[in-house]
Amino acid sequence: MDPRIPEAASVTSSKLIKFTNCRLLRGDSLVKADLWISPETGRVLHGQDVFYSQKLGPSKVIDLGGKILAPGFVETQVNGGFGFDFSNECDNLSDYAKGVNKIRKGLVQFGVTSFLPTITSQKTTLYKKVLPFLKPSSSIRSASQGAEILGAHCEGPFINPCRNGIHPKSVLVKPEDGFASLAECYGADNLQGGSNSTVRLVTIAPELPGAIDAIADLDARGIIASIGHSTTTYEHAISALSAGASTITHLFNAMEPLHHRNPGIFGLLGVPSSNKPFFGLIADGIHLHATCINLAWHAHREGCILVTDAMFAAGLPDGVYDWTNGDRIEKKGQVLHLVDSDGKIAGSASTMIECINNFRNWTGASIAESLTAASRTPARMLGIDGVKGVLEPGADADLVVLDDSEDAEGWKSLKIEQVWKFGEMVFKAD
Amino acid sequence: MASYCLPLGEGACWMLTTTRRLVVRDNQATASEYVAEYIIQRINAFAPTATRPFVLGLPTGSSPQQVYAILVAAFREKRISFKHVITFNMDEYVGLPSAHPQSYHTFMYNHLFSHIDIDPSNVHILDGNAPDLESECAAYEAAIRKAGGIELFLGGIGPDGHVAFNEPGSSLNSRTRVKTLAYDTILANSRFFGDDLGKVPRMALTVGVATVLAAKEVVIIITGAHKALALQKCIEGPVNHMWTLSSLQMHQHALIVVDEDATLELQVKTVKYFKSIEGVAKECGYDQMVPSEIARQNAERAAEEAEMKALLESKGNGTKANGANGGLMVNGTPQRAVTPDIIPDRMSSRISDPPIPEGMMKENGELKMSNMHSRMPVPAY
Questions:
Q1: B contact residues 237-296, partner A, Cβ 8 Å cutoff
Q2: Cross-chain Cβ contact B98/A2 below 8 Å
Q3: Three-state secondary-structure class, residue A48
Q4: 3-state class of B43 per DSSP?
Q5: Cys-Cys link to A350, which of A56, A185, A284, B304 (CB 3.0-4.6 A)?
């Protein structure tokens, strides 16, 4: 066996699946190649090595008839869906666990195979109660659980009240004691750090007192600090970047707009390319104008991450729904507004595949580039490149099969045909 | 000779019975298609089974790449199966990890093996990382023999006429061995290694010229103007170890498929001649395929050989080119006669001894000893 091939990519049993006659997402392009996976290890195999060194053929060949085979989507901002919200304070914690499971199983049909459940600004009691339910689920590599939880995204409460969006101002706090304030709020037990950390990503406004210190401490622990819900200046945002912040939460939304003498957070996309941060974009067609998405994409392609910012109302019929802290949200089609708020947008009701299709049509990005923005780029941001978001040997066999079509008006769309998790099929379109 | 080709005359018939063929197609795509379809037809006619597999020799390179693409497409259309095909590849670099993007293992996997139903244990590629390269080569030859020899060897050539890594100057009698690459080849291949000469492997394992020639049939695809000189040297030039493919002139069942560009250096009459062979063959109602019946029916062949032997014996010494088996009708399709192996005699045996002048012979049948000057005429002065 070739010493350069990771051990995880080898196989001991002859139970192998080969996808053939497909276009694989490899690097920046779609290539005509086969993909071998092991349903036993749930990982992508080095097909060539299995073929030559182990002299094994596949026990099952799946002919995809020229369709696209890509890594499953990695979602870094999901607030909820299917009537449940990760910020819900359930009376009974077993209801919370049920809600989490419902979302995990529901998300796979949209091609999302791993995600960061996202909690908007809440009271500290809620974090301590619910965060343990959102710790990384990878210890049990089970396809039947649906999408994998990579840890929680805490969007607040250390954010600027002037850019709170729909987060209730009453719960917002300042990280005056740096990391200690964060530990007090989320619970030190939930900030273990590294890839097993319950809290994986924190959205924080760098202009708040103590925020820069907190960012440095988060970074030192391997927890990702994301700049967002902030009025910070370009100069201060640079300091946050130097302190260790590596990404921006939903670029353009909940921050100062670009001014030619004060470029603000958006200006970070203009720093030398080695220092440019990642950034999330909500390409639902409501949060952002298409041209802003195009602008950001062209400013820094390697950092572009598509997020849905989906809310509990995603997948529910139109109407007015109770939300947290006594607020109410009105859903009309895909548009969610906070009731009595002058029309503030309250997250989205769109799906990842819709965002990918919007993004592709608005920016002119290739299929490969569009899919990368929903898979490899978020994986790189999370420090799990090679495990998620790629089809390389040793990576988890989280896959989507997509069909490519174009309508009479020239709108190009990808449609999800199949979704695989840890080497097992978990969704198949009718 | 058989009645179906009588109108063409005896000479034409002889041409048709030879199976050294040059097929010219308009471009690379059509040339590749011809080769791929030919291989498909050959394998299907052979009807391989687990006990009687088809043994196929394979090359890498840009010319065969399109052939492989067509074979893969044909496999998907279920026109061909590789289940009972054994393959032997021509060559591999020494010291390059087999998973390296430029290794021939990778090339074959990406362009052919991963897409078809071949059994991995039927695939043979030289291991350039073997601890003992010499015994790896010897084992390769042994594996070919064990598989019953190669039925069809597909190949391409380099612009310098090399076949596999048998660089100019290689012995035409060579077998599988370690070969040092020519500077030209390293230079040409450096484009696959980031234009860094230092990264190009300097040695390779390769089948020898004789290994290729030992195949029952050799099919070579040559496309592009940059290979025109090599084609000319190999077809019109003499057999020469500086153009190793020229050795194909010695092979009984060779098929060279080229595109128009590759014929640029050939004489017009050469191209026309080979095109006419193809035309005439078509008129006579058969393609230019080696009848696989013949390759297959070893018993029949053995019988022929016995017949030939008897014929030769009855006529005493003499070179006989063909048996009486021309124009067989097998299953209603005309089959060409086999070109039997030539059994060479000594040329001297065809020359009768000159009469010995009188008085030169002793009574016991030996020549008398005499001074050489005694045989010279006496000068006239």
A1: none
A2: yes
A3: helix
A4: helix
A5: A284
For residue range B73-99, list pLDDT tens digits in order. Answer: 999 999 999 999 999 999 999 999 999
Helix (H, G, I), strand (E, B) or coil at B328: strand
pLDDT beyond 90 at A400: yes
- Burial class, B334, CB count within 10 angstroms (exposed 0-12 / middle 13-18 / buried 19+): middle
Give the list of residues 6+ apart from residue A409 with CB closer than 8 angstroms, or none.
none
First to last CA, chain A: 41
Q: A267-285: per-residue pLDDT in tens?
A: 999 998 888 999 999 998 8
Residues 104-143 of B with CB under 8 A from A: 105-106, 109-110, 113-115, 119-121, 123, 125
Question: What are the pLDDT digits (tens) for A403-429?
Answer: 999 999 999 999 999 999 999 999 999
Among A19-28, B263-272, B348-357, which stretch is predicted with the lowest mean pLDDT?
B348-357
Contact B137, B125 (CB under 8 A): no
Count of domains for chain B: 1
CA distance A323 to A301: 35
Other C-beta atoms closer than 10 Å to the C-beta of B379 total 5
Residue of A nearest to B112 (CA): A33
pLDDT of B334 strictly over 60: no
Query: Is A229 a known ligand-binding residue?
Result: yes
- DSSP class of B50: S
DSSP state, B205? E
B114 contact residues in A (CB cutoff 8 A): 18, 20, 33-34, 47-48, 51
Q: Which residues of A touch B123 (CB under 8 A)?
A: 51-52
Cis bond leading into A157, ω under 30°? yes
Average pLDDT over residues B327-334: 49
pLDDT tens-digit map of B219-233: 999 999 999 999 999
Mean pLDDT of B335-341: 58
Residue B327 located in a structural domain: no
In this complex, the residue of B76, B97, B113 whose CB is nearest that of residue A51 is: B113
CA angle centred on A372, ends A369 and A378, rounded to 5°: 140
Q: Which chain A residue shows the shortest CA-CA distance from B118?
A: A57
Which CATH number does the domain A73-381 belong to among 1.20.58.2050, 3.55.40.20, 3.20.20.140, 1.10.10.60? 3.20.20.140
Answer yes or no: is A337 a known binding residue: no
pLDDT at B11: 33
Report domain extents, chain A. Answer: 17-70+391-428, 73-381
Q: Where are the beta strands (DSSP E) in chain B?
A: 21-25, 54-58, 85-89, 91-93, 123-124, 152-155, 177-180, 203-206, 217-222, 254-259, 328-330, 333-335
Do B217 and B255 meet the contact criterion of CB atoms below 8 Å apart? yes
Distance from CA of A56 to the nearest CA of B (A): 6
CATH, range A17-70+391-428: 2.30.40.10
Domain that holds residue B116: 18-304
Catalytic-labelled residue, pool B91, B151, B217, B259 = B91
CATH number reported for the structural domain that contains residue B224 in this entry: 3.40.50.1360
Q: How far is A379 from chain B (nearest CA, A)?
A: 25
A309 counts as catalytic: yes
Burial class (CB in 10 A: 0-12, 13-18, 19+), A179: buried
Taking 3-state DSSP, the helix, strand and coil percentages for chain A, each rounded to the nearest 5, stand at 30, 30, 40
